[in-house]
Write a structure and sequence with these properties.
Length: about 240
């Protein structure tokens, strides 16, 4: 399938905002894009400036997804998925998570074949881009979805190029390079790194962090500016989406 797997160096680093910005930017230029996140926890928390992750992703995609179609499993407490499931006295089935991802991809493909170029008058129209699946992980790569199946395992199973989301400030060099190393050790293709929120006037340490991560990882580092739910498409359009895809 065509798509990206968005992971992060930690929880709360902006993965969902980046994933939604990618979805919104692709949708704004007329591409069929579906979103997928295997598990959302913390639904008991009071809503803030942003809606819950699966609701934001569903709104950013353009294939009529519902929040339940984006995310098959939700839990109230803000915990690691395996522990949230344990407290709920349930078990997460890894095969169900993989199947749900494929179902989300099929949702994107339902808009018609990307090679359907013939028009009613017999002339040809420009070829449409194939449907795209944007999958967002939970926390970092090594977060367990089940006691024996991690976010990294799901990324390997889906075989999508990986985009790593990182903070801009102190500590991000180590966290980002460790994430890249963990991804590469499993054979994943890290296609891009995004630091967010990237300020209009970055501090010297932020500029140094970005340059250092890019040099040591050998991966181009982009910056996603501060965004709101209404400006996601504009923010996402600044990312090198075609290079990643």
């Amino acid at each position: 399938m065509r798509g990206l797997f968005v992971t992060g160096t930690d929880t709360g680093v902006g993965k969902t905002v980046v994933a939604a910005a990618i979805c919104a930017a692709l949708a704004a230029r007329g591409e069929r894009v579906a979103a997928y996140k295997p598990v959302v926890t913390g639904t008991d928390d009071e809503p803030g400036d942003w809606p819950p992750d699966h609701e934001l992703l569903a709104a950013a995609a353009n294939v009529g997804q519902t929040a339940a179609n984006v995310t098959p499993l939700t839990f109230g407490p803000p915990l690691s998925p395996h522990y949230a499931a344990e407290l709920a006295d349930t078990a997460i089935d890894a095969s169900r998570l993989r199947t749900a991802a494929l179902h989300a991809a099929e949702t994107a493909a339902g808009g018609g074949s990307p090679s359907s170029d013939s028009q009613a008058d017999g002339t040809s129209s420009p070829r449409r881009a194939p449907p795209t699946l944007i999958c967002e992980g939970v926390g970092g790569l090594l977060v367990p979805l089940t006691p024996t199946y991690s976010v990294r395992d799901l990324a390997v199973d889906l075989a999508l190029p990986l985009v790593v989301v990182a903070r801009t400030g102190l500590g991000t060099i180590n966290h980002t390079l460790l994430t890249v190393e963990a991804a590469r050790s499993a054979g994943l293709n890290v296609t891009g790194i995004v630091m967010t929120p990237w300020p209009d006037d970055p501090e010297p340490i932020e500029l140094s962090n970005r340059a250092t991560v890019e040099r040591l990882s050998g991966i181009a580092v982009s910056g996603l500016p501060p965004a709101t739910p209404g400006t996601l498409a504009v923010a996402g359009a600044a990312l090198p989406l075609d290079d990643w895809l």
